[in-house]
Amino acid sequence: MSASAGMAVRKSKKRISKSDQVFHIVNTVLWIVIMFMILYPLYLVIIASVSDPDAIIRGEVVWHPVGISFRGYEAVFKYRELLRSYGNSIMYTFASVIISIFVTLLAAYVLSRPKFKGKALFNLFFIFTMFFGGGLIPTFLTMRDIGLYNTPWVIVLMGSVSVWNMMVARTFIQTSIPHSLYEASMIDGASHFSYFFKIVLPLSKTIIAVLAVYYGVSKWNDYFTGLVYLRDRNLYPLQTILREILATLQVDKSGDYMMSMMDNVESMVEATKVAQVAKYCIIVVATGPVVILYAFMQKYFEKGVMIGSLKG
Amino acid sequence: MKSAAAVQTQKPSTSASQRAKSYLKDNWQLYIMILPAVAYFIIFHYMPMYGIQIAFKDYKAVSGITGSEWVGLKHFKAFFNAYYFTRLLANTLILNIENLLIGFPIPVIMAIMLNQIKNDRIKRGIQTTIYVPYFISTVVLAGMLYIFLSPTSGIFNTVRQWFGLRAIDYMSSASAFRPIYIISSIWQGAGYSTILYIAALSGIDQALYEAAEIDGASIWQKIRYIDLPSILPTIMMVLVLDCGKLLNSNTEKALVMQTAGNIPKSDIIGVYVYNVGLGNAQFSYTAAIGLFINIINFILIISVNKISKKATDVGLF
After folding, report:
1. How many CA atoms lie within 13 A of A303 on its CB side?
2. Complex ipTM, two decimals?
3. Same-domain status, B9 and B146
4. What count of Cα atoms within 13 Å lies in the side-chain half-sphere of residue B212?
5. Distance to chain A for B150, nearest Cα, Å
6. Of A23, A138, A221, Cβ closest to residue B51
7. Cβ within 8 Å of A, B 260-279
8. Mean pLDDT, chain B, as a whole number?
9. Same domain, A136 and A237
């Protein structure tokens, strides 16, 4: 008993060498520091968003909220232009993601077919755009010329297909959907259309989740397209309005911002203070949905990212 | 239909046109299915390429792209001779090089260290967390920077004052621009790259580790002789891609971080093109600048790929 069991027992009781012990200590410290550096700024934004404006200015809000106050959130929900742009972004993102997933998967499917004639040509057609393009100015002029400038469509459609995502999806289809399924379907008389819709799509839940997150987040977070291609403030997506509030040091253009802060407040000074807190609240309200989406899609997402990066 | 299989097993007496017809009969749908993607790239990528020609013209809105008159290399010459040419180029290049030098190794190190964590739950918890900053928008990130670095109420200056140091308006300082840009870029993007390398590390054959164990290798040695060589292909692929972007501008990020105070360093080519091209409607001039950068990037990525292949046998293509 001692001889044969000895091998097994010896392995699990193996002493960890000094240098390995040091390694594990260093590693642990490293990750505690990294986790802190990632989570603390986010934590700070959350606690500041419910804190008293004066406490924030005095620098008292460091580890916990001080003087719980929801005036920041109150002001945010009265800020009409912000709310409208929020609604715009929801619609843009929704429409855009559906189109993106559809177009991307269709193309990925085609590119995954081994006997697809012209594959090399199409690949070149797509991949070339990753290295060469019109540039900002020619694209701007083109959008104007074809009438997409200052329409919702330019937001929904621009950036809705990415070559990188297409290749990741293609790899997914190639590796996760057995070719035997395809051959069996063809023998049964299926067409590409029916095979795609009846078999490929239902089996692609993981990659659909990955695409939804990549495209959705990219669309939701984009401020630049709205800035360049829209003129009508009614059409602005959320992030384009946010830029005026969070990232320009001039007074915002609408005047609406300060007005909504002015509600129930005695003076300009007070309004300015509330505006400070409101910034934290706006960040929470703008980023919250994205983080929540990530939390929900997490299961599919990590698996999909692994598959995609391994071979894509 | 049986026809596909039947045609393929027939003797090679079928003519080329018959084979072509049979192929199309079975596969015409593929060409319809790929059409939306093709249309997208034509509209948003290839049509704008037609507009690149205004770099060699004096674009006037009334004449349109085709009607404006040719002026040859006038805009390119103007750009190369401009007093700000060197500054723009330097700002763009130095920012990207520093970003690469500092930001490139960090995800690699993180992935290797993360890979050594034995507790699976902790490992996955960390993986989930480091990905979160990736989801924060550029505007929100910049907003957080303005807030945290504010000289009056920002947490960073609050802590400085605890130590008796005075508050500094970092976002208005040109010398602080690059560090802030780079550190925040790492904060936001390291998680994303780390996951890429973790995927590569997870593909390593366990037998290699076991063999190393038997030879009495320490963890540092295992990393040096197993981990690093195994993820070298992935590292080179990312490196080649990054080098091809050395003259790129993350216009969206720099634009939103630009203040009156940091212009000397934050004025990178992309931001200049936006401000002057769209702001001042100098379309032809900035289109020329854009084309110039695009061509250099193209040459760059082909060269770096060649070098990478010569040096390590691995390249992007």
Report:
1. 12
2. 0.86
3. no
4. 16
5. 10
6. A138
7. 260, 270, 273-274, 277-278
8. 89
9. yes
